[in-house]
Structure formats: C-alpha cells, structure tokens
Write a structure and sequence with these properties.
It is built from 13 helices and 13 strands. By secondary structure, the chain is α/β, with parallel strands linked by helices. It has 2 domains: 108 residues, 2-Layer Sandwich (Enolase-like, domain 1); 251 residues, Enolase-like C-terminal domain (TIM Barrel), CATH 3.20.20.120.
C-alpha cells in the first residue's frame, strides 16, 4: 500500500467562529483507492503560507510510502533539515498527515483506530465544555458571572459533569503578568457564583491561558482553593516548566497544561519537574496519535492523567476521541458543547454525544466522513486573522475586560 495523493482544505468557520477562525483538513488517498482524513491545529502562520509547507512535508516524507510506517514518517519529518527538536508548525503538519494515515490503516484493517492503539478501555468518555454565555442581545458575554452561572446550570442539565471558564483577563503578547486585585476579585466571584449554582453536580475547571507570572498565579490559586476546582490550567506561559512547577507546589489545586506543547520531549519535562499532573495535549498539534499515545504512557508512569484539549474542528476531535478510548489514564475530554452547529455540518454524521459523554465510534478508521459539499462551500478561508490570536497590547491594571485574544 502506497500513499498517492494529498488534498488540503482550509475551511472558514462561520461566525461566531466557535472552534477557531478556520479548520485545516487533509485528505490522503492510496494507490489502491483508500482515503483517510486528518486535521492540523496550527496557529502560528496564515493558511496561505502553511498550505505549501504541508505539501512540502507530504512530498518529501509521505508520497509513495506505506501509511503503516508511522514511526518512519514521524522520525523523518522530525529530523527534517537537521533539526530534531519540537517545532509547533512541523508537528502540526505531521499531526494532520499522521492522523490521515491512521484513518487509512483503520479502514484497511476494518477496525476503529482505538483498536489499533491498544484496544478500547473506555466505552464512553466523560466530557466538559467551555461556557458560552449570551446576554440579552444574543451576544457572547464572557465577563458576567451571573450569565456564566446560568450557562453552567444549562450545561449541567445537558449532562456535563464539568464546565470550564476563564475570567482572568486578556492573554496578551506580553503575558504573563501580575493580575490586578479587581481581576482576582472577578475570578473569585465567577467561581463562587458557579459553584453556588451547580453545587456538587459538576466540577469547575479554571481555564487560564498563561496570563500570569508564578507569584500572581499562586496568589489567585489561594483565593480559589475553597471552591475546589478540578484544575488550574496553564497558569503561566508554556516553555518554563520550573515556573509552572513553582505554582503547582504553591496550591492544592491540580495544575493542567499542554495545549501549546508538542512531542514527548516537552511533556517529559512537564512530568519530570512536577509542573502538572493533568496533561492536555491536542492530537492535531502534538505530533499525531502515536506520539500522543506515547505521552499518555509516560504520564501513566507518573500517575498523571490525560484530558485532551480540543478547540478546533471535528476531524481532530474524532482522532482525539479514538486516542482517549484506548488510554487507561484518561480523565476527561474537551467538547464544544455537544459538537452541534458547524462541527456537525461538515460531517456526514455528527460526533456522538450522550448525556455529558462522548461515544467513540466503532466504525473503521476515525469513524467519520467529511461532507465535501459543505467543506467546499466554506473554502477557502479569505480572512486575515489567524486561528487564534493574542491581544496586541499589555494588560491594563484598570481594565476589567474578559479573557480574549
């Protein structure tokens, strides 16, 4: 079996752009006609510059090769240009192509990908969602703790046993920074009102985005401990595990991290330093399914748990669900509510959600199929914004604006 062709789709996500400004899907086809689909989660470059890089990696390391040889492809791409170090752009590209290979492998074997990653251990996967509250005008409002509490109740009524939110102010090009007293008051108010509204029916997940320096993170964590969050997410920017470990030692709240990390090498440092006990890799960025499985195995040896990150499209979600189904130390999976809306529109059949749980497909491969008519109707992406962006100016101590980029 040999890989014969590649198609790349850059799909513009309609307003309100839940899941990012665009999704990048790749389709591989073998010489014998088996097709596989993947997704890459890469925010650093505009798709107009990224698509030629995808084609270059494909032509150098995958075209004409057997899709079963995942390790060979991964090592060749990781070593490209005498690098052999984690690079988020390369790993995003590798992730998308590697996921598509697994889809082909599963279809050829007539088995879901989870069966090829060690076999299913979780028949259903506990899920959480961010809160997406709307005000009276129907606009998303992330700055009102009362609206957040109302939305938390609605999500619990849908079956969710955990909800996530980030009231810690803007994440900027200049983060981390010291949070103002007003922002810390607001963070505490969010936790108090949401906890009062949902009681012990669901966990609260404090989902920061690297806004703080360690001293500020510890100050905030001390104020939030009485609300017993399941985790304190990415309290400081990625890349300095010792700083995050300082936060982890300074609070009883478990620290989680990983959405901006790639490869086993970066996660090894997180585990070795004790920076986090909950790992949130995104399979569409981290290096693909096999790399994510290796990271999960490393975490298992440290009694750490896996809570995959997902703020992208449904192909990456389908791959992540297959990984989670085969991961013994799986904790919980991010969902975007019930994966309705545009996440459902671009697939022939939507991802399965039932009473707060994601149900892994038992169909061969990833168990999904793109609706190419919808994909083509929303392609290409012609905007200027990247998938996600940070605020351009430093945080203002007198500003009380919600977390946003």
């Amino acid at each position: 079996m040999k890989i014969a062709s590649l198609k790349t789709h850059v799909v513009a996500v309609p307003p309100p752009h839940v899941g990012g400004m665009y999704w990048i899907f790749v389709e591989l086809e073998t010489a014998c006609g088996i097709k596989g689909v993947g997704e890459l989660y890469d925010s650093a470059f505009h798709p107009s510059g990224l698509v030629p890089l995808i084609e270059d990696v494909f032509e150098r390391y995958l075209l004409g090769h057997d899709p079963h040889r995942i390790e060979r492809f991964w090592r060749a791409a990781y070593s490209s240009g005498f690098t052999q170090r984690p690079d988020p752009t390369m790993m995003g590209i590798v992730s998308g192509l590697e996921i598509a290979c697994w889809d082909i492998i599963g279809k050829a074997a007539g088995r879901p990908v989870a069966d090829l990653l060690g076999g299913t251990v979780h028949e259903r996967l506990r899920a959480y969602t961010y809160l997406y509250p709307k005000n009276a005008a129907g606009e998303y409002d992330y700055n009102d703790p009362d609206l957040a509490a109302e939305e938390a109740v609605r999500m619990v009524e849908m079956g969710f046993t955990a909800v996530k939110f980030d009231p810690a102010g803007p994440y900027t090009n200049y983060s981390g920074h010291q949070l103002s007293l007003g922002v810390m008051d607001r963070c505490e108010e969010f936790c108090r009102k949401i906890r009062d509204a949902i009681g012990n029916r669901a966990e609260i997940l404090f989902g920061t985005h690297g806004q703080m320096v360690p001293s500020s993170a510890i100050r905030l964590a001390k104020r939030l401990e009485k609300y017993d969050p399941l985790w304190f997410e990415e309290p400081v920017p990625p890349g300095q595990e010792a700083a995050m470990a300082e936060v982890a030692r300074g609070t009883s709240i478990p620290v989680s991290t990983g959405e901006r990390l790639t490869t086993k090498y970066e996660f090894q440092r997180v585990l070795q330093t004790g920076a986090a006990s909950i790992l949130q890799m995104n399979v569409a960025r981290v290096g693909g399914l096999l790399e994510a499985k290796k990271i999960a195995g490393m975490a298992e040896a440290f009694y750490a748990q896996i809570a995959p990150h997902l703020y992208n499209g449904p192909v990456g979600a389908a791959a992540s669900i297959q990984l989670s189904a085969a991961t013994p130390n799986f904790l919980i999976h991010e969902a975007i509510i019930d994966f309705g809306g545009f996440h459902a529109e671009v697939l022939k059949s939507k991802l399965q959600f039932d009473d707060g749980y994601l149900i892994p497909s038992r169909e061969p491969g990833l168990g999904i199929e793109l609706d190419l008519e919808v994909v083509q109707r929303h392609s290409p992406y012609t905007g200027d914004r990247l998938h996600l962006q940070m605020a351009a100016e430093p945080a203002d101590v007198k500003a009380f604006i919600p977390a946003k980029g």
